[in-house]
């Protein structure tokens, strides 16, 4: 099927079979290999991209469902999170990092819109407090085999402007 997507701000035409995942369309048809394939079944978050600004697992999405949508992959990301991940050792092998960063961007947008998480004390509160527990809960769909979780949480706090006094990105 012929479909058109906007990927990282550029209109792209694709000819894909209906059963092709968005992940495979990005990696194999468009050569955007920054988005990683881990489990290929929705369990690890390595394939997280943004669709119209919302985070999705690209391995669970069919490319044809995203006709006309704006997809952002790590290749199209310019965000303070990237420097923060480096500064706080939020990555080791780096395999999970593109998905972590796309997921964190989507997650911060959810927080900005006041969306509660499973550990939000008072979901009725308009302003959601983003603490370590909440970040860990909201990022729990993104696994890291290297266990860089402490650095990931610190990087997200820094990018969200809630780094604790005395924390140093150096
Ligand atoms: S590859 Fe998509 S969630 Fe693991
Ligand atoms: S940095 Fe290696 S899997 Fe996360």
TrEMBL record:
PROSITE patterns: 2FE2S_FER_1, 2FE2S_FER_2
Residue ranges that the Swiss-Prot or TrEMBL entry lists as coiled coil: none
Tree of life domain: Bacteria
Domain spans labelled 2Fe-2S ferredoxin-type: 1-77
Record's keyword terms, sorted: Iron, Metal-binding, Oxidoreductase
Matching PANTHER family: OXIDOREDUCTASE WITH IRON-SULFUR SUBUNIT, OXIDOREDUCTASE, IRON-SULPHUR BINDING SUBUNIT-RELATED-RELATED
Record's protein name: 2Fe-2S iron-sulfur cluster binding domain-containing protein
